[in-house]
Write a sequence for this structure.
């Protein structure tokens, strides 16, 4: 982090803590330069960054002032899904979201796609090019079913950061995390079995379970601490649950990192009822705090945790390189992989292995973590600025996804249809529930660097939400001190 970024972070913290009040004049550029022993240019850059985040406002001949704004919206409360086995629906809505990627005119604010334009990926392009120039015929043949050995070694080495002690022989390479989850679920479950999941949870996992004829129990989930262990224990006592699918680190879509003590308690609960844990760690390496959070797999001593991940969120989804460490289910996973794909593409495996071996991966991760955290700061600031009162918003600990909860009667499916005319697509909340719950919620992505088009899209979404809330009389009564923010928001829309 540069000097001006550190100074901007410090000033932002002072604003958040109320040391600089709303509308208060900030210290002059020269005063801050002397106080922090930095150049005037550094202070100006820091102020410019805070201005971009709309935390401060310049006034000609008067200096900089704290921008009057609404208080941060509250976090969503713990979810309350129906706690009984249900058949999974929502496939048509998932297909609509996936097909939306094909329309280049659409601004995809609902997609879980990372930013692949980073300059730290340039070495990967060169490596891919060199691999092609070598014309190694082995890379055009079938890979062995376990995956490219040098890549398995690199994956095992990277897993150390998450607390895992894996050997290369314990890792199976897959075609993305989607296949890793698919083979893991099939290795544990049979059609008709029951699986417990967080609620809300990743729609891809839901559709895998649906395709295999597996019923789901959605467990209440907190946007800070994760899946409710008390509700899960009660479900275990009532139903023959075969496994648990969780995303404990940088959860999709809620963004939390499950506390270590709760990870241990979840594993203990699974041991008590002899259930498998399928752990999706695809966003784990994008946690904003370092060192990155541990996995449940790192606590596992009897091989009941199947750890799934990929390079789709940290590098690029088009590589289609994932992996699974299946523990005691290794032989079953290999059989399931043979049934599904047989073997994975060799060239991209070789390219990723070389990218890691040459030391490019960690610097790339550091850059992307910083970028996504900056994007979140900008994005959440504009959500607070434009969106009406009466919403709840998550505070992600990593990754690039944010979950917004609107009043219960709101219909985000209808909202998404209305936004189509403006070439904007969001991910509606009902995608993340087996039974179509969370129709009043939406998931937004802030992977791409914030720009005027994104700001205009947020203003458009907010205006559509506010209009719908007014039609349905869902807007709360005006709070003291918010009139100015509403007027400011209306001015920005104009």
């Amino acid at each position: 982090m540069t000097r001006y970024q550190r100074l901007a972070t410090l000033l932002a913290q002072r604003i958040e803590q109320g040391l600089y009040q709303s509308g208060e004049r900030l210290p002059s550029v020269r005063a801050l330069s002397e106080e922090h022993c930095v150049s005037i240019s550094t202070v100006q850059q820091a102020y410019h960054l805070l201005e971009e985040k709309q935390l401060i406002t310049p006034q000609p001949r008067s200096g900089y002032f704290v921008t009057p704004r609404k208080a941060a919206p509250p976090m969503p409360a713990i979810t309350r899904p129906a706690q009984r086995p249900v058949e999974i629906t929502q496939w048509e809505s998932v297909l609509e979201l996936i097909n939306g990627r094909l329309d280049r005119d659409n601004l995809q604010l609902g997609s879980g796609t990372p930013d692949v334009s980073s300059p730290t990926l340039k070495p990967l392009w060169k490596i891919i090019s060199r691999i092609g120039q070598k014309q190694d015929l082995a890379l055009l043949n079938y890979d062995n079913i376990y995956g490219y050995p040098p890549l398995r070694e690199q994956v095992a080495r990277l897993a150390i950061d998450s607390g895992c002690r894996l050997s290369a022989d314990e890792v199976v390479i897959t075609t993305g995390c989607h296949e890793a989850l698919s083979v893991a679920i099939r290795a544990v479950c049979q059609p008709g079995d029951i699986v417990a999941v967080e609620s809300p949870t990743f729609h891809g996992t839901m559709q895998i379970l649906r395709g295999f004829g597996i019923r789901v129990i959605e467990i209440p989930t907190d946007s800070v601490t994760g899946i409710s262990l008390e509700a899960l224990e009660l479900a275990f006592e009532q139903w023959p649950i075969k496994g648990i699918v969780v995303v404990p680190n940088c959860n999709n879509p809620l963004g939390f990192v499950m506390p270590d003590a709760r990870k241990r308690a979840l594993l203990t609960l699974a041991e008590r009822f002899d259930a498998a844990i399928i752990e999706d760690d695809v966003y784990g390496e994008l946690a904003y705090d370092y060192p990155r959070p541990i996995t449940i797999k790192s606590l596992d001593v009897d091989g009941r945790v199947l750890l799934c991940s990929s390079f789709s969120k940290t590098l690029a989804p088009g590589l289609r390189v994932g992996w699974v460490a299946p523990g005691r289910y290794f032989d079953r996973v290999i059989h399931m992989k043979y049934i599904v794909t047989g073997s994975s593409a060799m060239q991209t495996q070789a390219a990723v292995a070389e990218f890691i071996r040459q030391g490019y991966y960690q610097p790339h991760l550091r850059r992307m973590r910083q970028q996504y955290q900056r994007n979140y700061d900008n994005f959440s600031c504009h959500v607070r600025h434009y969106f009406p009162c009466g919403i709840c918003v998550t505070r992600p600990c990593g990754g690039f996804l944010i979950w917004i909860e609107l009043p219960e009667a709101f219909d985000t499916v209808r909202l998404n249809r209305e936004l189509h005319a403006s070439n904007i697509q969001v991910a509606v909340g009902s995608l993340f529930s087996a039974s179509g719950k969370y129709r009043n919620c939406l998931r937004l992505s802030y992977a791409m660097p914030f720009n005027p088009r994104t700001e205009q899209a947020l203003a458009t979404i907010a205006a559509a939400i506010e209009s719908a809330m007014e039609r349905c009389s869902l807007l709360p009564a005006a709070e003291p001190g918010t009139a100015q923010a509403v007027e400011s928001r209306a001015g920005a829309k104009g």
Observations:
- The radius of gyration is 24 Å.
